[in-house]
Amino acid sequence: MKKLYRSNRNRIVGGVCGGIGEYLGIDAKYIRITFVALTIITSIFRPLSMVVPGIYIIMMLAIPVKKLIEMILTQLLIHSHILRKQMMLKKKKVEKH
């Protein structure tokens, strides 16, 4: 099960956009562009001018930072999963011959 974390590696302000990008599997620059565009659009309407920055701040406080040990364990799990798949593919090739 995937969890949403603020990014340690892909951060400019608080790692929120980087974390969302990692969670969704897309480049964080698109998330950042969306946040900036929404901030500009809502700033046209005075009562809404602080909504998007406020949401960002709330997300920065609510979403936990991914700890280094969790990052290492995640990478190890991904690596072991890839190795298992490679071994299974090699086994299937050997069985076909």
Tell me, rounded to a whole number, the average pLDDT. Answer: 85
Order of helices and strands: HHHH
CA-CA gap between termini:
37 Å
**Approximate shape:** elongated
Task: Tag the structure with descriptive keywords.
97 residues, mainly alpha, 2 domains, elongated
Provide a compact summary of the structure.
The protein folds into 2 domains: 1-66, no CATH class; 68-97.
Question: How would you characterize the overall build of this protein?
Answer:
The chain has two domains: 1-66, no CATH class; 68-97. The protein is built from four helices and no strands. The chain has helices at residues 16-24, 28-44, 51-62, 68-96.
Describe the protein's topology.
Layout (H helix, E strand, L loop, with lengths): L15 H9 L3 H17 L6 H12 L5 H29 L1
Helix pairs in contact: 1-2, 2-3
